[in-house]
Amino acid sequence: MFNRLKRIILNCIYKEASINAINLSAAITNKEAFSDIKNINYGKAIALCGGGPSLENYKPINNCIHVALNRALLNKNISFDWFIADDWEGIDFFRDELIRFDGLKFFGHQQVSPDRQIPESFRIKCNARRYYTDIYRVEDGFKSKLVCDIDKMAIGNMPNIALSAMQIVLFTNPSIIYLVGCDASQGHFVQPKELDKERIAEQEKNLKKLVSGSVVLDMWRDIKAFAEEYYPETRIISINPVGLKGIFEDVYQEGYKENKN
């Protein structure tokens, strides 16, 4: 009994020490990653581009900073300025494109299993900025909270990169955020030849939980409330919305036809 109690106490101490160490690392690393972009896009428009099917039909908006999430970078019709990713599984199949991309790059560190982490050697090769998310996981029931001061603490680790990236683009304080290809639905706008059928099937299987589940849609509503509280001057507009229809301001571009696949 005593040994069992001792183990419980030691585990609690170890967990608390680990969390404190991660928080300290996050504070230092995120300050280096984000301090110089605070308010940098005031008065400007940002298009946050996910890899959903509607990205294929998106007509790039002029005078707009375009931010690619994961495979959205593979859309050759868009001239991207920034890139954000936090999962090796989502980007390891287009390494050469990432290395060649000369825009600002942010690679997240999620505190999860090693096979999900973007290798530090690759980050260095890409000249990307590293940032920390907090230690909560999808399996913990989406306990992470949205963060305003991302230059002082870990970003809330959301179930998909678009939700996490919203904390970054909001931090730059733009006048408008266009959500593009953030379909909250099944499918991607492209399946690269580097992905085999089994891996494609596994990725598509995870989409319902991580992108289009009811809990995730509620988190998009949390994003809306968060932005209204901390960035009330920023408009959020869904371009050609699918799953996010009715949550933000909806705009359909001329000639857009919803992908039914």
By CATH, the topology is sialyltransferase cstii, chain A
Question: How far is the first residue's CA from the last residue's CA?
Answer: 58 Å
E-strand count: 8
At the first level of CATH, the class is Alpha Beta
Strand order of the largest sheet: 5-4-3-2-1-6-7-8
Radius of gyration: 19 Å
The major β-sheet equals: 8 strands, parallel
Structural class: alpha/beta
CATH hierarchy: architecture? Alpha-Beta Complex
Oligomeric form: single chain
SSE string: HEEEHEHEHEHHEE
Number of helices, counting only DSSP H or I runs of 4 residues or more? 6
Provide mean pLDDT, rounded.
85
Helix content: 25-40%
Strand residue content: 5-15%
Uncertain segments are none
Number of domains: 1
